[in-house]
Design brief:
alpha/beta; 270 residues; seven-stranded mixed β-sheet; 7 strands; 9 helices
Length: 270
């Protein structure tokens, strides 16, 4: 991964002040009023699922359930782009929350209007935004530019209808196919977007799905995640969510990093 402004791109970049941390936790408490925190997963086939694969959403849901978090996946879709292998996902039709807002093959510009309408309808507390791979797949270098504006427009549209939303913005995973040389330039742009659009009232948290991802062992077609890759991606989202959701326990994933986040409920830990 390239450096940005001379600083290494950390796996999770938490650049929050203590005041922002308290805002996130209090916003969840105020918006939920004892109800589940609503999480909308938004993106392309890496989120919707493709062929026999359901995507990271399956593993993430059960990680959150096993950890005791009160969450609700929201969105207008309940299917994948294909027929999930129920041997791999035994609880897909029963206890798994299938709702999402992702569309196989969509570029960021195609998600702008969808994201705003869905956010107005479902009022998510948290959005997991992971998109941009189709931009560069189709358009190469121009796709980096397209995603730069598309992601900003998506975030702006969501905030227009849910002003206090928290957005987890994912960098895309490596792949081995058309225009893959533009993955790193796109991820550099995504890091800049997260830094520039992060606000105290509506945090944008960068989540790195690039560093450590192995195309050979974590994809089934050199592009889409296999079960190993899905679990790996779910782990990344979970580590961040587990640090900000109500009832979270202290995590030390960023100890030693500049500007590391820490749980304000735990005195003296950082």
């Amino acid at each position: 991964m390239n450096n940005w402004n001379g600083m290494p791109l950390l796996r999770f970049r938490f650049r929050w002040s203590l005041g922002v941390i308290f805002f996130v936790l209090s916003a969840f408490a105020c918006s939920a009023h004892g109800q589940a925190v609503k999480i909308m997963t938004l993106g392309d086939s890496m989120t919707s699922g493709y062929r026999q694969y359901v995507s990271y959403r399956y593993d993430l849901w059960f990680q959150l359930m096993d950890a005791g978090f009160d969450v609700d996946f929201v969105g207008g879709n309940i299917t994948t782009d294909g027929d999930p292998n129920l041997d791999w996902y035994p609880n897909y039709l029963t206890t798994f929350d299938r709702e999402h807002q992702a569309y196989s093959g969509y570029r960021t510009d195609q998600l702008v209007g969808i994201a705003r309408v869905a956010s107005a309808s479902y009022q998510p507390d948290v959005v997991l935004l992971w998109a941009g791979v189709n931009d560069i797949w189709e358009q190469g270098a121009a796709g980096v530019v397209n995603a730069r504006f598309g992601l900003r427009d998506i975030i702006g549209g969501i905030r227009a209808v849910v002003p206090g939303v928290t957005i987890l913005l994912g960098q895309i995973a490596p792949y081995d196919h058309a225009n893959s040389e533009y993955v790193e330039p796109l991820n550099d742009e995504i890091a800049i977007i997260a830094s520039e659009l992060d606000t105290p009232g509506s945090p944008v948290i960068l989540v790195d799905h690039y560093t450590g991802f192995n195309v050979g062992s974590m994809t089934w077609d050199n592009v889409h995640q296999n079960r190993t890759g899905e679990t790996w991606v779910a782990d990344n989202w979970f580590e961040v969510l587990a640090s900000i959701l109500p009832g979270s326990e202290p995590f030390s994933i960023n100890i030693g990093h500049s500007g590391a986040w820490y749980n304000p409920d735990t005195s003296g830990q950082g």
